[in-house]
């Protein structure tokens, strides 16, 4: 395996995991009675809140609906496609030998 392939796989897994976590946050917004301070969900909040808090300051909730996780799903998906997609930058900059 080439280093570029390893980097591509690692970035792909990381960005896919981030997308999954943000989608989980979107689903949890449908259930306002769920507390993100209890154990299983506290890990989700710890992983995503550093991204969501600054976004909420720039774009406050619209009509009581927090759209920051939706914005981050779009950003992370775009990054994943640009970096490790079929013609991603990682594979273009470091072609297989």
UniProtKB/TrEMBL annotation:
<keyword id="KW-0812">Transmembrane</keyword>
<dbReference type="InterPro" id="IPR003425">
    <property type="entry name" value="CCB3/YggT"/>
</dbReference>
<keyword id="KW-1133">Transmembrane helix</keyword>
<dbReference type="Pfam" id="PF02325">
    <property type="entry name" value="CCB3_YggT"/>
</dbReference>
<comment type="similarity">
    <text>Belongs to the YggT family.</text>
</comment>
<protein>
    <submittedName>
        <fullName>YggT family protein</fullName>
    </submittedName>
</protein>
<feature type="transmembrane region" description="Helical">
    <location>
        <begin position="6"/>
        <end position="28"/>
    </location>
</feature>
<keyword id="KW-0472">Membrane</keyword>
């Amino acid at each position: 395996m080439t280093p570029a392939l390893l980097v591509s796989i690692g970035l792909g897994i990381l960005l896919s995991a981030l997308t999954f976590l943000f989608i989980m946050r979107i689903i949890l917004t449908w259930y306002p009675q769920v507390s993100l301070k209890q154990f299983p969900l506290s890990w989700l909040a710890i992983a995503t809140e550093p991204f969501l808090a600054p976004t909420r300051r720039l774009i406050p909730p619209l009509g009581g609906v927090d759209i920051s996780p939706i914005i981050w799903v779009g950003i992370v998906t775009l990054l994943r496609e640009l970096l490790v997609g079929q013609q991603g930058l990682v594979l273009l900059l470091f072609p297989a030998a």
